[in-house]
Specification:
Belongs to the alpha-ketoglutarate dehydrogenase family. The chain is of the alpha/beta class. It folds into four domains: about 10-160, no CATH class; about 225-285 and about 295-465, 3-Layer(aba) Sandwich (Rossmann fold), CATH 3.40.50.970; about 565-810, Rossmann fold, CATH 3.40.50.12470; about 820-945, Rossmann fold, CATH 3.40.50. Strand 25 (about 885-895), helix 30 and strand 26 (about 915-920) form a beta-alpha-beta unit. Helix 7 crosses helix 8 (about 235-245) and helix 19 packs across helix 21. The N and C termini lie far apart (about 85 Å).
């Protein structure tokens, strides 16, 4: 506030400031806030017959008149006239409250490596302008502790205790006033809450001793083995166990978790209760898992699932997702799994727009401080939190703040003050907590869960701790942080510090504390002794513990996915019917709908988008839900899909696929945020939790999928062999050289093919709408799950030849992994050259063959590149006895596309030399010049018939 402007003058300014104050009392300057506070207090007093009772209440804002001069207020209001000295004092009080709420975290003692907090001079009693005489003066505020009058020194001490203890609170950035006030109420009541019970204290001690002793035990028994221990951050287990025990009270039935490798073994053992003997066995040099179908992964990447039974008999399901060393990559996967579990818990949803109860499943993400600040996937996943197709009702984020990233100090790792500042973008409250204060950790954990359940929003607990060792147990931290490493080596572990504290305070006797420690130690010794006995006896039966699932092997057996003509007509009719009075855009009304109606009436032709909708509709009518998400998927990047109709007058939506039958599955289609990694990771996670749902992610252009390469490389293509985790997610990647330049031509099929082995994924490049129809339906009609990667078309969406007839969809039809062209296969004895190809180039080859009158060349489309069907190939070539030349033709450069992958497959199987027709090798997928593209395309097509 300008020092020359007083609350006593300027009516317009007074009105403006009053409205601002009503919205947020802390958003105006201190003297304005003091004036309005006194004004409301006076109104309240005048309306009460018991001034002592009502002095703490505020009148409704709407009942307070706005005037230019307080001295001229009607006497009936009872508003006291504040002299300058009183106004100044009240302004200082409000300023003090405001500053502690906003800046108290800067003076909180959250770093366990510091003996005391670093004082912030702006929070001293003198900095607010109070004199020593003011300390005994009564102070009050209707916005602090219910307006109770207390000596100023008592108010100051209360604020200091609430906001500058071992928890630092950041919440004043939150825009929602109700949220801020709820948090303020909880924080400012905390100093006056009763101490934890003896039972709770005993639990807390056990929770922090379990990881401490477990890690020390592993270090002793398996010297030099990497385990990425939680030592220095044992408080994480206090946070997790506190959340778990609070879950039943707050109607939470399940926890879906994700974390990096640091502390994972301790979380598996001490939180998910994975068999100690199995964990110890995984450290032995001769460890072999109890299953043989897969390559496995290192022990500190593995996931686990369990149903935890609490002391009162209530149960909470806990699942920890497997995660590679790509740290935060798992976040989106966990969110997707959580949403799937929420859907399952809610029951089958058929009503369009029905809201799922998200309280029952809690996502918990455990971050490192360096990764939280440095990994873009964190920001992308935070951005999912309130979006309709991706929200999970809020996530509890736990940051294990090591105060270092490998060897990089915070000053070199981030530009923000805190590692958690990125979470402010979604108005998440942030609690910075001292990791060596179990009782504060418990309070913070319980608050976090209450907040999440009440507001369905994210919240962050930033637990300050340290690493007792370096990046791993073999690393020497003293190389780069000698002083910190020395201080840590001289420091007692957190469990021992807490134990000593409890004994000294009399909260537990020395015998009680020792008994807790001894019981944990006995469990460890017993587990190790059990391991030794089984190893000596050669008994490995107990070591098969895993929550991964094996599945039937891949089969090329045709899967009948055709539907009856009547069913097709019924679905198609409903896809082309609009509600009465619905105003569809004129272009769609005159072209899109009539074209589909004509296809139904004439038995063809069906284009790509119509075939897609028919496939979805057939699955939905079978009771199988369908989900598609990605950038602009409702309309489609190429304005071809229109799965959602919008009324041109009011933008009301109508989704025909949700109006097929009363007992159908639900169709979910969501335009996503502009992200690949987060959205694909989310949908992949969703597919893990909903194996009976067709779940698809579509890239705006196929080459945009490289923004999600970590999800593709570390999860989709490898999860089955590493973790026995099965998914049937479908990736739709627009692909085709249409002269659109290097960034909008190739979905990089070579990258996916390079990942292919052990029947891990299916890679397809299709040429007809019916093939697309069948391959989608096949995903849910087989007894095994495999991710499906489809190079979907662009120009083929509207190419007249790329259509199908009703017979291609109906009874007896199915997906064909290899497709011959009918013309030359009618006269196989004439064939002297066989051209293999995949995708769009087939139509260019056929056009050239017909234009040139060539009759001795057969063209075989490889619709499914992997797994490759050798038996079907042999069957197709049985009658070709005069073939002299074998050619592979592709649009992509020679070092890209399928050539490098398919050439050895065809050559070795047929025992022939496969010639190449296509673009020359290039570092770029395509030229940026239209004329050059056309010339190259013409050349490669002609070469296929001449090389």
């Amino acid at each position: 506030m300008n020092s020359n402007v007083s609350p006593r003058g300027n009516a317009h300014l007074l009105e403006q400031k009053y409205e601002q104050w009503c919205d947020n009392p802390m958003s105006v300057e201190a003297d304005w806030a003091a004036f309005f506070e006194g004004f409301e207090l006076g109104v309240t007093q005048s309306e009460s017959t018991d001034s002592e009772q009502t002095a703490t209440q505020a009148a409704p804002a709407a009942s307070i008149p706005v005037v230019s001069q307080p001295e001229q207020l009607p006497a009936s209001t009872g508003v006291p006239v504040l002299d300058d000295e009183m106004l100044e004092f009240r302004g200082k009080v409000v300023s003090m409250i405001y500053h502690f709420r906003r800046m108290g975290h800067t003076q909180a003692h959250v770093d366990p490596l510091r003996d005391d907090a670093e004082l912030n001079p702006t929070l001293s009693i003198n900095s607010f302008g109070f004199t020593s005489a003011d300390l005994e003066r009564e102070a009050s505020s209707v916005y602090y502790y219910d307006g109770k009058k207390v000596p100023l020194k008592e108010m100051f001490a209360g604020l200091e205790k609430a906001f500058c203890g071992k928890i630092g609170f950041e919440f004043m950035h939150i825009h929602d006033r109700d949220v801020r006030e709820w948090i303020i109420d909880r924080i400012e009541q905390k100093p006056f809450e009763p101490q934890l019970s003896k039972e709770s204290i005993s639990k807390a001690l056990r929770w922090i001793l379990e990881p401490e002793l477990f890690e020390a035990f592993l270090g002793k028994k398996f010297l030099g083995e990497k385990r990425f221990s939680i030592e220095g951050g044992e408080g994480l287990l206090v946070l997790l166990n506190s959340i778990l025990e609070k879950c039943p009270e707050l109607k939470c039935k399940e926890i879906e978790m994700g974390m990096a490798h640091r502390g994972r073994l301790s979380v598996l053992r001490n939180f998910l209760k994975k068999s100690l003997t199995t964990i110890l066995y995984e450290f032995t040099p001769n460890y072999v898992p109890g299953y043989t179908d897969g390559d496995g992964d290192v022990k500190y990447h593995l996931g686990y699932e369990v149903e935890r039974k609490l002391a009162d008999g209530k149960k909470v399901r806990v699942s920890l997702a497997a995660n590679p060393s790509h740290l935060e990559a798992v976040n989106a996967v966990v969110e997707g799994k959580a949403r799937a579990r929420q859907r399952i818990n809610h029951g089958r949803i058929t009503a369009e727009g029905a809201e799922v109860n998200r309280e029952t499943v809690l996502p918990v993400l455990i971050h490192g401080d360096a990764a939280m600040a440095g990994q873009g996937s964190v920001t992308e996943v935070l951005n999912l939190s309130q979006l309709p197709g991706y929200k999970t009702g809020g996530t509890v984020h736990l940051v294990v703040n090591n105060q270092i990233g490998f060897t990089t100090m915070p000053a070199d790792a981030r530009s923000s003050i805190y590692a958690t500042d990125v979470a402010k973008m979604i108005d998440a409250p942030i609690l910075h907590v001292n990791g060596e204060s179990p009782e504060d950790l418990i309070w913070a954990a319980e608050l976090a869960l209450e907040f999440r359940q009440k507001f369905q929003r994210d919240i962050v607990i930033d637990m300050y701790c340290y690493r007792r060792h370096g990046h791993n147990e073999a690393d020497q931290a003293a190389f780069t942080q000698p002083q910190t490493a020395r201080a840590i080596s001289q420091r007692l572990p957190a469990g021992q510090l807490y134990k000593n504290q409890l004994i000294e305070s009399g909260s537990l006797s020395e015998v009680e504390a020792q008994n807790i420690e001894m019981s944990v130690q006995e469990e460890l010794e017993n587990g190790y002794n059990k391991l030794q006995k089984h190893l000596e006896a050669g008994d490995r039966s107990i070591f098969s513990e895993s929550t991964g699932e094996s599945q039937p092997k891949y089969s090329h057996e045709p899967c009948q996915t055709g539907i009856s003509p009547a069913e097709l007509m019924d679905i198609g009719g409903k896809l082309t019917t609009l509600p009465e009075g619905f105003n569809l855009h004129p272009t769609l009304a005159k072209r899109f709908i009539p074209r589909r109606q004509s296809a139904l009436e004439l038995g063809g032709t069906f284009d790509w988008a119509f075939a897609e909708s028919l496939a979805w509709g057939a699955l939905l009518k079978e009771g199988k839900p369908v989900r598609l998400s990605g950038q602009d998927v409702r309309r489609g990047t190429f304005s071809h899909r229109h799965a959602v109709f919008y009324d041109s007058n009011n933008r009301e939506r109508y989704i025909p696929l949700n109006h097929l039958s009363e007992d159908q599955g639900k169709f979910c289609i969501y335009n996503s945020l502009l992200s690949e990694a987060a959205v694909l990771g989310f949908d992949y996670g969703y597919s893990l939790g909903m194996p009976d749902m067709l779940i698809m992610w579509e890239a705006q252009f196929g080459d945009f999928s490289n923004g999600a390469q970590v999800i593709i490389d570390q999860f989709i293509s490898t999860a089955e062999t590493k973790w026995r985790t099965n998914s049937s997610i479908v990736m739709l990647l627009p692909h085709g050289h249409d002269g659109m330049g290097p960034e909008h031509s190739s979905a990089r099929p070579e990258r996916f093919l390079q990942l292919c082995a052990k029947d891990n994924i299916i890679v397809a490049n299709l040429t007809t709408p019916a093939q697309y129809f069948h391959v989608l339906r096949r995903q849910l009609h087989r007894d095994f799950c495999k991710p499906l990667v489809i190079m979907t078309p662009k120009s083929l969406l509207t190419r007249p030849e790329a259509v199908s007839t009703i017979e291609d969809f109906t009874d007896g039809s199915c997906f064909q992994e290899l497709l011959p062209d009918s013309k030359t296969f009618a006269n196989p004895e004439k064939v002297e050259r066989v051209i293999f190809c995949t995708g769009k180039v087939f139509y260019d080859l056929v056009a050239h063959r017909e234009a040139a009158g060539i009759e001795n060349v057969a063209i075989i489309r490889v619709e499914q590149l992997y797994p490759f069907n050798h038996e079907l190939l042999d069957l197709l070539l049985t009658e070709f006895t005069e073939v002299k030349d074998w050619v592979w033709c592709q649009e992509e450069p020679k070092n890209m596309g399928a050539y490098s992958f398919i050439n050895p497959i065809l050559g070795e199987h047929l025992q022939v030399y496969i010639k190449y027709a296509g673009r020359v090798a290039s570092p770029s997928p395509a030229t940026g010049f239209k004329a050059k593209h056309i010339a190259q395309q013409k050349e490669l097509v002609e070469a296929a018939f001449q090389v």
